[in-house]
């Protein structure tokens, strides 16, 4: 076993970070030690650092990553495998886990969300190594998939797979459906491709011209939100609407766009959001469905890996970087650039 120390970037509150050297941990039964090669900075970590989202502190942030297994006490894994891993580490014993809702385990622990001075210090991907817990879903990455999409699969990709599943649960299939995607960050762009590949006609809205261009290159019809709000009639009726911006206007647009029997999947509202008005009669008379998605199930991670192998997304164009681990604090102190993710090279 490698005895080199771990470099961990510990978030200590606000925009403050401290690079800490610590020894490699002793693994418990079922755990796996991964030497990280790449991480990607998710927008939800930016919400944490800016104070918009609550987070245990101090902690090692980062929940998107990929790396090589250095040591494992999981009999299903082998040293040397390249893997990515779930955001969630469920207990697999509570009633929610036993009924298949591990994403909302009663004893849930989360990658990049645990205290550095607690039971899972090396939980985040802004470090040279991460410990993966027993029962935490882990996916082996095929050689044909690069580190950047493999990292993004562990949060954005798998979350979109869960959102698409939620849409299908009510719409049966996306084939020939009219789908609206609201918000073209990383999740929205992946959702555009997923809906198009499922045979849907896709309209995508976002105020950012460059992001609309990325969606248009995949085959979506793109509209500026102001222009969309001015349109009327069938132009605003959709069978499925998926919301990834988290903005109140985005949520309202998503819900109000539904045709009869339409389904709205809300996935962007993961931080404090204003309450919006909802007309129960309109929902009831229209047989409309509104559902939410947060976290995902193990099979969604596998689906994301498979999906990305054939993805047409230009990962270089939609990401910034790479930067070093030492440069991560600076990345949080400046506004995010045109890229939807900043890549962190941990090699």
Strand content: 25-35%
How does the overall form come out from the CA principal axes?
globular
Structural class: alpha/beta
Low-confidence stretches: none
User: Counting H and I runs of at least 4 residues, what is the number of helices?
Assistant: 10
Total beta strand runs: 17
Quote the distance from N terminus to C terminus.
18 Å
The main pleated sheet reads as: 7 strands, mixed
Q: Radius of gyration in whole Å, from Cα?
A: 20 Å
Helix content: 25-40%
Instruction: Give the rounded overall mean pLDDT.
Output: 94
**H/E element order:** EEEHEEEHEEEHEHEHEHEHEHEHEHE
InterPro entries: ADH-like_C, ADH-like_N, ADH_phosphonate_catab-assoc, GroES-like_sf, NAD(P)-bd_dom_sf
Domain Alcohol dehydrogenase-like C-terminal: 187-309
Cofactor: Zn(2+)
Protein name: alcohol dehydrogenase
